[in-house]
Design brief:
Rossmann fold; alpha/beta; Dehydroquinate synthase-like, alpha domain; 2 domains; six-stranded parallel β-sheet; binds 5,6-dihydroxy-NADP; two-stranded antiparallel sheet; about 50% helix; 8 strands; binds zinc ion
C-alpha cells in the first residue's frame, strides 16, 4: 500500500426533504449572504430553488443568485459569479445541481478570494487556502463533485477543458435528497452511472499491486452500481434504487476508493479533451466510448488484474486462458455501458473516419498540457498512444 494523505471534510444531510434544511444548517455555520448558483432550468422548474430560498429566508440568510450553468461549465459565467461575490460580500457559495454547477461554484469560490483572473489559477494550479466555503444541493448523481477536491472548467476561447484540485474546495456540506433525481431523463441517469463506475475503474487499474482494503471497497461499489442501474432506469421513481445510486456516486469519487494506490486517470484526461473538442459531448457518454478502448489498448500490461475484475464484477468463470478472461471482462464492461443506452463508438458522438484525424490534431496539444507526457499509471502513455486509443474508439 502506497503512502497517502487524505481528508474528507464534507458533512452530509441525506434523505427526503434534505434541501429544506439548507437554511438551518448554513445558519449554524455562520452564513450570512449566499450565492445561489444553478443550471439551465431543472432547479427552477421543479420548484427546488424556491424551496431553498424559503429555507434560507426562514433562517435569516440573504442571497444573490446566478443561474445558467451549462453542462461542461465555462469560465465566462465563473467570472460573472466571482464579480457578484466581490460586489455583494458573499460569504458562502451554494451549488444547486450536478457536477457542472458544483464545479462552476468551486471555481467561483476560489476566484472570489483571488485578486487576479480566476483562469490564472486553472493554468498555474497554484495551491490556495483562501477559498469561500461551498454548500451543495445535489440533483444528479454522477461526477461526485459534492465531496471531491476537483473542479473541471472549460475555456471555449482557448478550446480547453482543464481541472483544478484543492482540498480547500471540497464542499463543507452536501444536501442529498434522492427524490430530486426522479426527474432525471434516462440519458442523464445513465451517463451519471457510467461516470461514477469509471471513477472506480480509474482507481482500480493502476501500477500498484493489490491493495485489498481499497480493492474490495471498489468492487463492492461496482457491484452495487451494476445491480441498481437497471432498477433505476426501469423505475425512475424507485426511492431506494435512486438512494443507492446517489450515495454510490459520492463514494466513487470522494477518495476512499483510491487510497494506497497511484490511480490512473488517463481515460478521464482523454475524455475531457473530447468534451473540449465538442462541448455538446456529455462526460459520461464520452467515457462509455473511451474506457473500453483504453482497456483494449493497455490490458496486456497486467491481464490478471482484468481477469480478477471480470470474475468479481461480472461473475466470469476462469477459462484457464487469462488473456481471454481479460478480454471477456472488457467486453462485459462495454456491454454494461451499452445496456444503459450509452454510445460505444466515437461515431455515435459525431466523430467519423473523415474527422477523426482533425479531432486528434485538435485534442493532443491540450492533452499534453493537461496531462503531461507520459501520462497514466497502469501503462505509461505517449501522445501517439493517445492518438491510437482515439482511433481504436472509432
Ligand atoms: O442545467 P439543468 O437544467 O439543471 O440540467 C442539467 C444538465 O442539463 C440536468 N439535470 C441535473 N439535475 C437534474 C437535471 N435534469 C432533470 N432533473 C434533475 N434533477 O442534467 C444535465 C447534466 O448536468 P451536469 O451537472 O452537467 O452533469 P454531471 O453531474 O454529470 O456533471 C458533468 C460535469 O462534471 C465534470 C465533467 O467533466 C462535466 O463537466 N466532472 C467533475 C468532476 C469533479 N468535480 O470531481 C469529476 C468528473 O470526472 C467530471 O470530470
Ligand atoms: Zn468523471
Amino acid at each position: 500500500m502506497e503512502n497517502f494523505e487524505f481528508v474528507s471534510p464534507t458533512y452530509f444531510v441525506f434523505g427526503k426533504e434534505a434541501e429544506c434544511k439548507t437554511g438551518e444548517k448554513l445558519a449554524e455555520r455562520g452564513a450570512q449572504k449566499v450565492l445561489l448558483h444553478y443550471g439551465g432550468k431543472s432547479a427552477k422548474e421543479s420548484g427546488l430553488l424556491d424551496r431553498i430560498k424559503a429555507s434560507l429566508e426562514s433562517a435569516g440568510i440573504a442571497w444573490v443568485e446566478l443561474g445558467g450553468v451549462r453542462p461542461n461549465p465555462e469560465i465566462r459565467l465563473v467570472r460573472e459569479g466571482v464579480a457578484l461575490c466581490k460586489e455583494h460580500g458573499v460569504d458562502w457559495v451554494c451549488a444547486i445541481g450536478g457536477g457542472s454547477v458544483i464545479d462552476s461554484a468551486k471555481a467561483i469560490a476560489v476566484g472570489a478570494r483571488y485578486e487576479g483572473d480566476v483562469w490564472e489559477i486553472y493554468e498555474s494550479k497554484e495551491p490556495r487556502t483562501d477559498i469561500l466555503p461551498i454548500a451543495v444541493v445535489l440533483t444528479i448523481p454522477a461526477a461526485g463533485s459534492e465531496a471531491s477536491k476537483n473542479a473541471v472548467i472549460s475555456n471555449d476561447e482557448l478550446g480547453m477543458k482543464t481541472g483544478y484540485a484543492n482540498n480547500g474546495q471540497r464542499p463543507k456540506i452536501a444536501f442529498m435528497n434522492p427524490e430530486l433525481t426522479f426527474t432525471l431523463p434516462p440519458f442523464q441517469t445513465a451517463a451519471g452511472i457510467t461516470d461514477m463506475f469509471c471513477h472506480l475503474l480509474e482507481r482500480f487499474f493502476d501500477d500498484v499491486g493489490s491493495v485489498p482494503v481499497t480493492d474490495n471497497l471498489c468492487l463492492s461499489i461496482m457491484n452495487t452500481v451494476r445491480a441498481e442501474a437497471p432498477r433505476v432506469l426501469a423505475e425512475p421513481d424507485n426511492y431506494d434504487a435512486r438512494a443507492n445510486i446517489m450515495w454510490a456516486g459520492m463514494l466513487c469519487h470522494q477518495g476512499y476508493a483510491g487510497v494506497g494506490r497511484h490511480e490512473d486517470w488517463a481515460t478521464h484526461g482523454m475524455e475531457h479533451e473530447l468534451s473540449a473538442y465538442d462541448t455538446e459531448i456529455t462526460h459520461g457518454a464520452g467515457l462509455a466510448v473511451m474506457f473500453p478502448a483504453w482497456m483494449e489498448y493497455v490490458y496486456s500490461e497486467n491481464p490478471d488484474r482484468f481477469a480478477f475484475y471480470g470474475r468479481e464484477v461480472f461473475g466470469l468463470r476462469p477459462t484457464g486462458d487469462v488473456e481471454a478472461d481479460a478480454l471477456s471482462a472488457i467486453d462485459e464492461t462495454r456491454a454494461f455501458f451499452a445496456s444503459l443506452g450509452m454510445p460505444t463508438t466515437l461515431g455515435e458522438l459525431g466523430i467519423s473516419e473523415d474527422t477523426i484525424e482533425d479531432a486528434i490534431d485538435f485534442m493532443l496539444p491540450t492533452l499534453k498540457i493537461n496531462k503531461g507526457e507520459p501520462f497514466g499509471s497502469f501503462k505509461k502513455l505517449t501522445m501517439e498512444d493517445a492518438a491510437n486509443i482515439y482511433r481504436l474508439a472509432l
